[in-house]
Design goal:
single chain, alpha/beta, 2 domains, 8 helices
Length: about 300
């Protein structure tokens, strides 16, 4: 992989006067001290001015901010750094923990500080430490956790090839503590970045937020209306019934019906006429009771015979 070297200064409150238009023309990128814990928790007195001017005048300068570890409590160092510095970083601005305070800031100390900051800030940073400590101490836990390293070796020209122990490679190197820069009134540390383009530094900075498109509520199509059509009723064929036969039983005939024929000759009744009178043509009143009817006929017959005998 081919790379170029991009030079930049390390500034803090020690650089009291900075001409940002001049510095912007003379540096490729910049490191800014933000805070420290070596004399209690504090913000570098020039940090706010330096970060503001870097954003306004040095808008083409990628930047890394750092915290100088105190060597007492790594969680305290990380929390103070996050609460006062990292929460206000912009996209592309990265961070480091400066662990050059010596034996008090061990690899384990650095790992705890880095892990705490990452868990709270949301992205990882790097560690600044001397090249000698990288090869004489076990920094494998920090390297394996994915944090980058920024070694310092003031006697070695920037090359990107010296040993950094467990890290194998390094994107940054501090190569001097006595660099001069256009626009900066006092000497400062000088650093170099190894990369294809200087904007590769932004890869070590705060990531851009993931923009999640607003949720679109899509109304699912209505379920089809199922119309249940009842099956046609089965018409039961009823066989025609047999014709009803009414049996009429004949009652025995009653006595022969007597027919009365009345002969009216308009003649006065006489013996002659009477002799020819057929009393069988006289019909007695029809009575519902046969016994009464029989009795009545007999009585009339006797009466009639009596009359005839009297006439004669």
């Amino acid at each position: 992989m081919s790379y170029q070297t991009f030079y930049g200064p390390d500034i803090s409150a020690y650089q009291t006067v900075i001409s940002w238009p001049e510095l912007n023309n003379g540096a490729a990128w910049i490191m800014i001290k933000a805070s420290g814990n070596d004399a209690g928790n504090y913000i570098d007195t020039s940090y706010q001015q330096n970060i503001t001017n870097a954003r306004v005048f040095g808008n083409s300068l990628p930047r890394i901010v750092y915290n100088y570890c105190g060597g007492v409590d790594p969680i305290n160092d990380a929390d103070y750094f996050v609460d006062n510095v990292l929460v206000n970083l912009e996209v592309g601005e990265g961070y480091e923990f400066d662990c050059e305070r010596g034996a008090a800031v061990t690899p384990e100390y650095a790992l705890q500080a880095l892990n705490q900051a990452k868990s709270r800030a949301g992205w990882g940073g790097g560690v600044y430490v001397s090249q000698n400590r990288l090869v004489t101490e076990d920094w494998s836990a920090v390297a394996n956790a994915g944090y980058f390293v920024h070694p310092a070796d003031w006697g070695v020209a920037p090359s990107g090839t010296f040993s950094v122990g467990a890290f194998k490679t390094y994107p940054f190197q501090q190569y001097t503590d006595n660099a001069t820069w256009p626009g900066i009134s006092a000497p400062c540390d000088g650093d170099v970045f190894f990369g294809e383009v200087v904007t590769d530094i932004l890869k070590f900075g705060k990531p851009a937020p993931i923009i999640v498109p607003p949720r679109v509520n899509i109304t699912p199509p209505a379920a089809p209306v199922v119309v249940t059509v009842p099956a046609p009723a089965q018409v039961q064929q009823v066989a025609p019934s047999e014709p009803t036969v009414h049996t009429i039983t004949s009652q025995p005939a009653g006595p022969p019906k007597q027919t009365t024929s009345t002969t009216n000759t308009n003649k006065p009744l006489s013996v002659d006429n009477a002799s020819t009178l057929n009393i069988n043509h006289l019909t007695a009143p029809k009575l519902s009771n046969p016994k009464i009817a029989t009795t009545s006929v007999g009585w009339l017959t006797r009466l009639w015979n009596w009359i005839l005998s009297w006439i004669r």
